[in-house]
Amino acid sequence: MNSTDRPAALARAPALAATRWVWPGVSAFALGCAWVGAASAGGIGPVGATAPSEAAVPGWLLGAALSTVLVLIGWAAMRTRQLAADERLSRAMLESSAQMMGLLSLDGKILRLNPAAAEWMGSSDPAGSERPALWALPAWVSGAACSVQLREAVTRAAGGMPQHAEVEVLCPAGGRRHLDISIRPVRQVPDAPVDHLLLEARDITIRKLGEDKMRLATAVFEQAREGIMITDARGVVVSINHAFSTITGFQSDEVIGQFPAMLTATLDDAQTPQRIRRAVLRHGHWQGELRSQRKTGQGFTAWVSLTARRDAGGHLSHLIGVFNDITRSKEAEQKLLKQAHFDALTELPNRHLLEDRLQSAITAAHHQADTLALLFIDLNQFRHINDNFGHRTGDGVLMEMAHRMHDHLRDTDMVARIGGDEFAVLLPHTEADGAAQVAAKLLERVAQPCMVMNNELSLTLSVGIAMYPADGDSVDALTRSADTAMYRAKLEGRGTYQFFAAGMQQRSVRQLQLEAALRRAAEKDELLLHYQPQLDARSGAVVGVEALVRWKHPELGMVSPGEFIPLAESSGQILAIGEWVLRTAVRQIQAWREAGLTGLVGAVNLSAIQFRDPGLPELVKAILDDAGLPPACLELELTESVATGNPTAAIAMMDRLHALGVRLSIDDFGTGYSSLNYLKRFRIHTLKIDQSFVRDIGTDADDRAIVQAIVQMAHALHLTTIAEGVETDEQATFLRSQGCDMMQGYRFCRPMEAKGALAWIEARRAALQALDQAPPAGN
Fold first, then answer.
1. Using CA atoms in the order 78, 79, 81, 84, what is the torsion angle rounded to 10 degrees?
2. Is the pTM above the cut of 0.70?
């Protein structure tokens, strides 16, 4: 049957169904009529009957009655068969239904369950008198709470009100299941009292799982610590979570329906959103770091992950953005990076970053056949400032010097702090002349006095210059060359610069050898003292000697003090050497006294490190006591910079030494920046005029004026003066004329070992004694 025949067949169906029981009745009616008619005609009747009696029932009436009976009997039979079929169909439907169905009494007793219900509830269809109550079934997960809920539902349904409830059962065949139960009243006749209850249940487990997932997703969306933003395909915001508002400050009514341009106002590149969108459309995902903006205008750094959501047709429907505020972690990362590559005090690049930049500059210079310069810089007086004025002042000086050097360089140049008082300057694309100009500019700028912690201070630089590729083609080679040149600049008198030259490296190796050998020099008796006599300017008598340390190396010979004293100071050996010098000189002066040279004062130089040693007075007293030398026979010489570097500390130390009875003198006076206010408070006996002023007395009017001023000032302060470095009669004559008290220098005697010095002193005394005893001229 095709589709066009289906309506006609559906129309004939009722007629065909009726003939199933009507047609047998009609046939019986026709048969009855025929039989009765025949009987009436005499064709048929009881045996022996010849004719009908007058009172006989009409045949047609009997036929009609008989036909009606037969019709009713046929209809009843057909109706019975139809009901049986309908009952079988209904039972089949109930038995085959996947839904739970059952019949309950008004008091909740289970009268009948379909197989699905029996399977879910773990109970068979009840029979006989064993009819459990609905709430007594063991499958209910909620126990007592579920029992109360079902009792109340049954009671209300028995009263004519349909009830619904959601319950959970433990199904033997399928684990836990969620059911939507309906209990409805049943009436066999409309408007009749309720006599049964119909139990129906649907499995809503999948729906509940979906709802749970939806609730979980909603909770995750709202409670996530990451900001979440969902836009439509055009980029218009359709939803945000609470964390989004917390991070950005924008509320949902300010964002939803808008383009998120307010979050990208601080992007460095305006093309970034377009690039991100292209990546999402092409790959379906993008993640990276973005600089965003809060509602307050404050910028923050976010790690953003964008994912495209497509519909069933593959078209972009939504864009999901998840971001974390990584501002603090980014700042911490930057801080760690800064700590790893920058100096914490000056904020200049450190040695590590310098080496990285230097390597890059060398690579670029190699490819471009270019040159570059590397400068190593040392602050010459920094250690003295740091020790005498304190670390806070020292830090201030470092920051000031770093600022000065940085401000006098090009943007392409780089200045780095590579040690305590050492800096380096990288000059890409620079030849030797340019490097020399930069070095001279830095020397001039740094030499200008600076005010730090209310102290006016001056420093000088020692600069070493190495050129690429002439002095090295690697980081290590260039840094070694620059360091060697810097050390050479320090040896040349400081306050200058030196280019690396062939042979300097050998001298650097020599310095390392000397430093190692110096540690054992005292133990091996390689150190010795030379003594230079100090004479009274008027009488010419020897009134004292200055002890000068010398080092005689068994292989290298005599090593200059200008070479090994800085090594001793930088390596920390100066304390041990200074103690040896002091002890040896005191013993020698006492030995000469015992030999008859009375009235002789021994002068011993103190280094800055010795002078800052809190135990110096106790050490001096112990040495004097061991030798038996009167304290007045010992004079301790301090350089002007040591005495004036930290005047308060210097005064305290001088007071302690003066209390011992020793004499104190200021060496190299006039070469520093003395404060006369402090000078008058120093417990000193002698001012020593530096030889740099004495050397040019005969030709330099300024030097003569300086010497005159020092002598006059000293006498005004009741101090003795002594001039060092006197080499000519002209110098000696001028110093006497100005009232200088004492002199020493090559004009009279060079420094000699103790034996030679003793012989010279005795000869000098004998000559003066003979001169005094000689008769006056003309007698």
1. 170
2. no
